[in-house]
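Q: Can someone sanity-check these two? First one:
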Amino acid sequence: MPLCDKTADWCNIQNDEELQKIRSFKRCRCGNGPDKNVCLKQFEEEFILQRRAEMCELSNVERKMFIMGHISRSINRGQTTNCTKRKAQKQRTRTSCTYKVDGFKVCRQAFEFLHCISNCQLTAICKHFKENGVTPPRKNSGGRNKTALSHSDVKHVVTFLETYAERNGYALPGKTMGVRCDDSRMRLLPTCKTKKAIFKVYEQQMIEVNRRRTMAGHIPLRFARKSSFYKMWKEYCPYIKITKPKSDLCWVCQKNNSAVFHSANSSDQSKRERLANQLDHLDKVSKERAFYRSNVLDAKANLKGETLGIHAPSSRKMKSHYSFDFAQQVLYPSDPDQPGPIYFITQRKCGIFGVAAEGLGKQVNYLIDEGSQASKGANSVISYLHHFFATYGLGETECQLNCDNCSGQNKNNYLLWYLSWRCMHNLHASLALHFMIAGHTKFSPDWAFGLLKQRYFRCFVSSLTDMEDVVHTSSTTGVNIPQLVANEGGKVFVKAYDWNSFLSPYFRKLPNILKMHHIRFSSENPGMVYYKEYIDTPEQSLQLLKNVNNIPPLILPEPIPYPGLSLKRQSYLYDSVREFCKFEARDIVCPAPSE
C-alpha cells in the first residue's frame, strides 16, 4: 500500500472536509480494491490527501501534462483488440486506457477523484493527447472575458445585499419552517419582498452613486445586470433568504418574532427578555417534538411484522402508537384537465379522516361523502376511532394517541370520557392522549395526506369508487388504506353514535383542558385521569366519574342517522354537476332528485 510523508503540514489529519469526501466516496463500483472493495481502499487516507493536495497546487497546464504522462503509458491505440478470451480479434473502434496510480489499477472514477478533475476534463485531455500528442493544451477562447465583473464589482453587490438584509431582515433565534441553514449570519427578508424588487433598489442606488461620481470627476462604477445579480446572491449570500408564506403558523412564534424584529431601538434588557421568551417557547416545542418522535421510533421497533386487522381488544401485550387528524375535503367529479366551467360549480364533497399507525407505516383514511358527513365534532371523531380499534386495531394493551389542538374535534371532554370508558371496561389497559403544540402540528397523517392529494390531482375522479382507487394507488408501498363511511346511495359502512349523550350523565369535565398536552388513563384506576401541561411539568390527577359506583355500561350508544343530501342540493348536482361525471357514474353521483 503506498505511503506518504506524514511530516508534511497538509498531511495532518485535521482536514475534516477532505477526509469526509474520501470516506463518503461511493462513485466506484469496479471492485478492484482488496476483497473486491472500492479502489480507494488500496491507498492510505494520508496518501489520497497528499495526491489531491499536490494536484490542487499545480496549475491547470501542469496538471494536464501530468495526467497526459499517465495516459501515454497506459493507452492502447492498436488497430485490433487484445482480448485473451477471444480467438479472433476484432477491429478496434475506439482506444482503451488502463488507469494506474503507483502501480495499482484503479477505475476511471477513482482516478478522477485522486487527481481532482472531472469526467469532462479527463475526456478532453484524452482527446487532446490522441490528436496532438504530449503538447501543452491551449485555450481557444482568448482568455478571460473582457466584460466579466471584477472582484470589486462583485464586492459592491455583496455589500449591498448584506446592508439591505441588516436593515430590512431579521434573525430568528431558532428553527424556521422551510429554512434549512445553520449559518449564524442567517437573515430572513419579509414575504412581501421579491428578488426583482430588491434588484431595482440596487440598480437605483448604483445609478445615484455613478451620478455623484461623474459630477466629482471620477470613473463610474460597473454594476451587475439582473441575471448576474441573482447568481451572485445565490453564490455569495445564500444566508439571506426571502421568507416563504406559511400555513398554520404558530401565533406565539409570530408574536415573539415580531417582538424580536421590532426591538432594534429597545434597551438591552428588553431585547434579552423578548429573545428569552422565544427561546423558552422553542425549547418547549423541541421537547414535545422529541417526545413524539421517540414514541414513533418505539412503535416501529416493537411492531415489526404486525399487520392491521381485526383483533380482540386488549388481547396482545404490546404497545402501539396512532395519530389521527382531518384532511381538507376534496371535490368530485374532479378532472386533471380542468375544464373551464368546473371552476364555477360546487361539486360533491368528500371529507377525509385519517388514522396513522406509525409503527407499521400505514394509514386508514375514512372517506366521508357529503351525504354522510354529519359534522367534524366529537361524535364523528369518536365513532371513527371506535371503528378503527374494532376493525384495524392490533389488540394492544397499551396505546399512545397523538392529535392536534383542535378543541371542537379532538381536545374536548367527550373524547376523554370515551378513552376512560375504554379503560374501565378493559378494552385497553392504558391509553395516553398527547396533543401537539398549536402551530407546530405537522405529523404523520399530513405526510400520508400529501401522498393522497398528489395522486388525486393527477387522476380523473368521478365517484367514491374512483376515490378509493386514488387512495390505494397513492403510494407503491400501500401506505394509504381507504375506508368508506357510506356510499353515494346511502349504504352505511361505518356507523356514527351519539357518544355525547351516552357519556354525559356519568362524567364531569376536566378543568383547563385547553392548556393540557398530555393526558392518560389506566384500567387500574377506573375514571381517574392523569394530566400535565408539558412533558417536563408535574403530573396531576382527577376523578372524572360523578359517582365511582355508577359507571357507563359496555354497550354502544344510539346510532345517529346520516342526514343525506337535501332536495335542493340533489337538484343542483343533477342540473349543474352531472355532465362532468363519467357516463356510468352519473346516476350514482348525481341521480335525479327524490325525497
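And here is the second, same format, sequence then C-alpha cells:
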Amino acid sequence: MFRKAYNKAALAVAMLLLVSCLINVGSSFDPDSLVDNIVLKHHAKLLEDVASGKLVAEEEVQEVAEMTPLPGYQCKHDHHLSGVMKNIVPKIDKMVAQSTPVNGGDFVEVAAATASNRQPIRILFDKSTLDNDKYACYTVGQKVAVGLDSGSDSTRGLSSCSGSDDNACIYTCRQQDLLTPSMKRLITDYILPTMSEVFGSVILVDRNEPDVLKFNQDIYNTFSQQCNYGVNVPSTYVTNGAPNTDHVVFVTVRPTTDTSTIAYAMPCNFDVRGSGFYGRPKASGINFNPSYFYNYVNKPTGFRYREYVRVGIHEMTHSLGFSNFFYNSFTTSRGARYNAASEIRRKGTSPAGERFNAKKFAIVSPNVVNFVRDHYDCDSIGYAELEDAGGAGTSGSHWEKRTAGEEYMLGFVSPLAPITNLTLSLLKDTGWYDIDYSHSEKLVFGKNLGCRWLDQCSDNTWNYQGYFCTNNGDVGCTATRMGKGVCLLGYGSLKPEYQHFKNPRLGGLDSVADNCPYYQVYDEIDTSQYCVNEEENSTLEATVGEVFGSNSRCFEFTSGGDRVRHACWQMKCNGKNIDITIGGQVYTCYDGQAQQTINVNGMQLKCPFGGLAECGGRQESLDVAGGNTSSTLFANAKLTFALMLIVLCTYIVL
C-alpha cells in the first residue's frame, strides 16, 4: 500500500529515536526507455481526450479545480496482506492436512520452467465492481464500510472512522472521495492500460494449454468467492476460466481510512502445492484511493501521471510475487522449492567506536545476487537487503533504501522510481517468469561504489558527490543528479548500526535509510527540486540558462566567488562523457577527470568528480567535509523557516 511521503517530509519514529523525515530520491525519465515511452504514449492520449472534453464532464470541472494537493505515500503491503491472510492461511493449512499428497510429496507437481515457450504476460482487468460498488462513494455524506475482511459484509458493531484507523469502521464520504465518471475513465482507460503494457513488455509467463486461465477452486472457496471485501468473483473464473489471460486483476476505487494511501493490492487466487507452498498468483485485487485522482483529472500533468502509473506497477509487483508471503514458494529452473529470503548479520564498528551485530533479512536468490554483485562492484556480497524500517506494513517486502536509494520497490517511493533489473531479477527467481532485461530502466544509485560503500555509511566510505553530507541545511545535487537535494541532520538515540558520525547521537533525519545522511529532495523547500520535473520550469533561474525536463540533471557551478551553486541543465551521455547544454551551447565534461571546470559565460561549471554513473563512468571519492559540492541553505530566511517547520512537525507528532 502506498502512502505519499514527499509533501509531508516529517514522520515520527518511537520516543528517544532520531526524528525522521520520510523523503525520496528521484530517478531518471529516459527517452530511450521502452517503459517511459509506453507511459508517454498513454499520457499523450489522455491529454488529447482532455483537450477534446472526453475525460472531464463540464459539471465536474469547477469541483475538481477547488481541490488541494495531497500528501506523499508509503507502501504498507505487508500490513494489509497480513490482515487478510491471518484468517486465510489457517484454512489453507487445514485443507492441505485433509488432502492426499501427490506421490507422497507436494500437492501439485512443479513442472520445470520452459523459458523458450514463455510469452508476454497478459493481464485482464475486471472492472465490473466499479459499476455498482456499495463500498465506493457516489454522494457526499454517504456512509460506507472500509477495512473489512475478505468475505465479510457485516457492518454490525462498527464505529465511525477516526483518523488513520487500521480497523474496520464506517467512513463518511467527502467530495474528493467520489467515484466520478471522469475518475473512472482516467483509471480504466489510461492508467490500467499503461500498467498492462509495461508488464507485458518485461515479464514472460508460461501459456496454459488450452490457453485458458482457471482459478483454483479451493482457494476460491477459502477467500469466500471474493477478492477483497465486497468484490464477488464470478464462478465462471473457476469453471470456464478466462481465455487468453495470464493474470486477472479485480479493480476498485474506494476511500481508505488512511488519507495518505494511494493504492494497495493483494493476491486472491493461486495454486497450493503443500503447506506454505504456493504457485504463481492467478488473480489479485487492486484498490485506488479516489482522493488522489479527484483533482488530477482536471490537470493531468506528465510528471504525476508517471508517478501514479508507477504506484500501480509497484502494487501489482507485490501481487505477482515480491511479497514475504511468497518467498518460501520460489522454485528453481528444475522445479525445486527454495526460500529466497534469509536472515543475515551486519557486523562492524560504528564511527563512534561502538560494535554492532545487527539482524536483518535479505533476498539471497541467484539472479538478485548476481545483479547486486555486478551493480555495486562487490563480488563478496551474497544478498540484497530488505527494508527493516517503516513498521509492519513496509519492512520485509521492499528493498533497503540505504542501498537501493531510488528503486521502484522501496517502501517510500519517489515519483520517478525506475523499474530496474534488481526487482526484475527477483521476479525471475520466483521460477514463474522470464524477464526481458533489455526493457528495464537503469539503477544509478550506488553504481560501482564497492563493498565498503555497502557495508558502512560514513564519511570515508560514502565520500562521493551527493552520498554523504555533514552540514545540516546544505543544498547539493542528489546522488543520481536527478534533483537539488538538502542535507538534514538531527540528534537522537541511535543504535550502533545506525551511527554514521563520531558523535553517536548525530545522524540523518531519514530513518528509512538507516539515518545515513545524504542529499534528498523535499517539496517543502523551494530550492529543493527534481530537475526531471517539467512542472518546475515556472521557477527556473533564467540568468544561468536553467531548464527542467526529462533530460535535465543537477550540476554545480560557481559565479563571482567561491560559493557553490546548483542548476538543472539538459545533458546527454556521449559515450562515458557528458554533453551539457547551457544557453543553447553544448559543453563536454570528460570521463575520468577529477577536477575539470569549464568557463561558461562567466560561470565556472564544475564537472562530475571522476565520471557520471548514469553514463557508465566511475565516480571518484572526495572530501565530503570540504564543502566543495554544496552550498548553505540557512542564508535564506524563508528556507530556514521551512526546515524548522519540518523538524518541528516531527517533534509534534512524537
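A (reply): Looked at the second one. The CA atoms of residues 214 and 239 lie 7 Å apart. Residues 181-202 form the longest helix (22 residues).
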